[in-house]
Specification:
By secondary structure, this protein is of the alpha/beta class. The protein has 24 helices and 26 strands. It starts with 14 loop residues before the first helix and ends in an 11-residue tail after the last strand.
Length: 655
């Protein structure tokens, strides 16, 4: 245990720890799929500290065992108000399985990365056990797993359409998104004596009601009914059509209440809360976290997810990118909630006082590193907006994309006497730094931010995510044309060269995404090779609930147009797309050659296989074909490989 902390500084996890605090009973008991890390980056800790700040007696049961007599679910007894259940910081199926459905070797949210401490569908399993053992105690389910499964959804791991998580888990109430605001209202009403089963009008919650039950009216809410779960089971196109409504209502400032019939009941999803104010988000991050794992894990080894963020600072929430494959906006919302400069610097100071801090912050960021303080210039325009993205297909004219507040934060952090260097580990939206794409921004300001990041906040490699090179695929992804990545790379190379930094630009790509054909992957491999990249890590598309791409993957229809859309689904199709990334591996050469020749793409064969791997690395002369036999591959100053013609040899004169 840290010398500056006592066991009572953490929320209690055992009866002994409850007694240390002098408590005879508990108001709320939290069950979590993660190990307990008392840090603002871990949802269960935030939930616990928020409830504690309301004057409640709160305990947490991290990673309860579901493989024995289930004593972990009974050891603390029944709480006075409710049980709170979360699968943890990740959907348990994403945590437990790879994109190819193989069991993962590690769980980043468990000491030593040990696997097997989080069951599949953890939120459902925990809730069902609690309802069986304590049928009269309300169960509130939340967190990312519950949030993204709040309505009929496709579950990739069982390859089936599942109803909302309330139906499967028997929980009484679902809190979706970031839970501070709805939980505050839940607690306030319960403390006033309102019965739990009367909590029907709290924003950002969902519940099941009887078909004939009259729902409490709210004059500020509209109402929309989507196709029933049973109708979705019968018709994939109907399922796809639901999603447009769900996504738009989830991203509105003033959303409508969503209703859906399911198994003889009505699912009711109340509209979301407005974006947290600066004071509200500051209050959440300013709670008395120890910023450390519970001492019970001291002998079990480090928790990988904590080690990754222990010296990082989260400065905002939300993402207005709206990428088709991403769940951030579905959970955190598309509008940005930013912390104050004072709150950020206060946390920086806490980090510098940690005993093992060496002067280096690993990250100052958020879901997307460079969206801090960005919002609509005229709020009334945002109030009416239904667009899922503020920057696709173009950057909204009403969006203030000034990077100046962010640059000032970086510089203020670096002035702290104990900070040697601060890094940006979160992904940067490079497209917002390209003047040709971000046309309404101050070009000089974008250049200043880009130079600030490259010069002072990159540790050898700057990671960005163009995701693909095909304009058709990128359009479906809600990402900009790859031509803007070329422009950003030019800026990166220019600054890199001028500052003599010798940094690397690392692009991330996704294979087998909906709308992506085999030729698209071949083109991607050829274009990135031509730019000098030899890709080592590639992410296969994983269908997760509540995304456009997942709806397309399952149904075959785009939810906004209801037009048929291709998605690679078989293992063969996925493996083949993935294989193009590794054109430089000897075992792939014949397959790539034969595959591309079948579709009459000898031009891509030439681009991808014109040089042996060793010659590509070393810049050796290598014949490509008879028509261009003198061309060589030479390494440029910026570690790119360029194809050039050597100087002609002088002929010897005859004497």
């Amino acid at each position: 245990m840290n010398e500056t902390h006592q066991l009572s500084d953490w929320l209690p996890t055992t009866n002994k720890e409850v007694k240390i605090r002098g408590w005879e009973a508990l108001d709320v008991i939290i069950f979590s799929g993660d190990a307990y890390v008392d840090h603002a980056a871990f949802g269960p800790a935030v939930l616990g500290r928020i409830l504690e700040s309301f004057g409640l007696r709160v305990a947490i049961v991290p990673q309860p065992s579901v493989h024995d007599n289930l004593q972990d679910f009974e050891k603390l007894g029944a709480p006075k108000l409710f049980f709170a259940v979360t699968a943890g910081a990740m959907d348990s199926m994403v945590s437990n399985y790879t994109a190819s459905k193989r069991k993962r070797d590690k769980d980043a949210y468990t000491p030593n990365g040990d696997k097997g401490f989080r069951p599949d569908y953890a939120a459902t399993i925990y809730s069902k056990i609690l309802k069986e053992k304590f049928p009269d105690v309300p169960v509130v389910v939340g967190g990312i797993e519950a949030s993204l499964r709040r309505v009929t959804h496709y579950d990739y791991w069982s390859d089936s359409l599942k109803p909302n998580i309330l139906t499967d888990s028997n929980a009484d109430l679902l809190v979706y998104g970031m839970g501070e605001q709805p939980l505050r209202e839940v607690v306030e009403l319960l403390q006033k004596g309102v019965p739990f089963n009367s909590l029907k009008t709290i924003k950002q919650t969902a519940f099941l009601s009887k078909i004939d039950e009259n729902l409490p009216a709210n004059k500020n809410w509209g109402e929309v009914e989507i196709h029933s779960h049973e109708a979705c089971l019968k018709d994939k196109k109907i399922f796809a059509s639901n999603f447009k409504i769900i996504e738009q209502e989830s991203n509105k400032i003033y959303g409508r209440r969503i209703l859906q019939k399911v198994k003889g009941k009505t699912l009711v999803i109340n509209p979301p809360y407005p974006t947290m104010t600066e004071n509200e988000i500051d209050a959440s991050y300013d709670l008395p976290y120890t910023r450390l794992p519970h001492p019970k894990y001291n002998k079990r080894g480090p928790i990988p997810a904590y080690e990754m963020i222990k010296f990082s600072i989260n400065i905002h929430r939300g993402c207005f990118g709206g990428c088709s494959f991403c769940t951030i906006s579905a959970h955190q919302g598309k509008f940005i909630a930013s912390r104050s400069k004072e709150s950020i610097l206060k946390e920086v100071d806490k980090v510098t006082q940690m005993p093992d801090f060496k002067g280096y912050l690993s990250d100052i960021g958020g879901p997307s590193a460079n969206m801090y303080k960005m919002k609509g210039k005229i709020q009334s325009i945002c109030d009416k907006c239904v667009a899922p993205s503020c920057i696709s297909p173009v950057i909204c004219y009403n969006l203030d994309t000034s990077h100046k507040p962010l640059t000032e934060i970086y510089q203020a952090v670096d002035k702290h006497p104990k900070i040697k260097k601060s890094f940006i580990g979160s992904g940067i939206r490079y497209d917002m730094l390209v003047p040709e794409f971000n046309k309404n921004a101050d070009k000089k300001e974008l250049e200043e931010y880009t130079e600030e990041v490259i010069t002072n906040h990159v540790s050898g490699r700057l990671k960005v995510a163009p995701e693909h090179t095909s304009d058709a695929v990128l359009k479906l992804m809600r990402k900009p044309s790859f031509k803007y990545f070329h422009k950003f790379k030019n800026t990166f190379d220019r600054i890199n060269k001028r500052k003599k930094l010798n940094l690397q630009l690392i692009p991330y790509f996704i294979s087998n995404h909906p709308a992506c054909e085999l030729e698209d992957m071949a083109n991607l491999a050829a274009e990135t090779k031509d730019m000098g990249f030899q890709l080592e890590q590639v992410q296969g598309f994983t269908p997760t609930p509540m995304t456009v791409a997942t709806v397309i993957y399952y149904s075959g229809y785009h939810p906004y147009t209801l037009k048929k859309t291709y998605a690679p689904k078989s293992k063969k199709d996925k493996d083949e797309q993935h294989r193009f990334f590794f054109w430089y591996k000897k075992e792939n050469r014949n397959w790539i050659k034969n595959t591309l020749q079948k579709v009459n793409r000898n031009d891509l064969v030439e681009k991808l296989l014109g040089f042996e791997r060793g010659d590509f690395r070393k810049g050796n002369i290598k014949r490509k074909n008879n028509s261009d036999k003198n061309r060589i591959l030479k390494k440029s100053k910026h570690n790119d490989f360029v194809s050039v013609l050597p100087k002609p040899k002088r002929k010897k004169r005859r004497r």
